[in-house]
Design brief:
The chain is of the alpha+beta class. It is built from two helices and two strands. It has helices at 2-10, 40-51, and strands at residues 17-24, 30-36. The longest helix is centred in the middle third of the chain and has 12 residues, at 40-51.
Amino acid sequence: MVTHRILHRQHDFLGSIRATAHTHLNEETCLEVLIVAGEAKRVAELTDRLRTVKGVLFAETVVASPNVR
């Protein structure tokens, strides 16, 4: 199951992951959102690792500053 493979990869990044959200888009497709904090290199590594999970259709990093008002 894709969800279990994603969770397994997340365990290597527990210090960076602040929150996750999982929702069902339809009977076959889910959306997993991770909120992370840390060095850009580490976040990029997490994104790259998630992209390699069999069954992941899309993985992208969206950067937001903590100073956004």
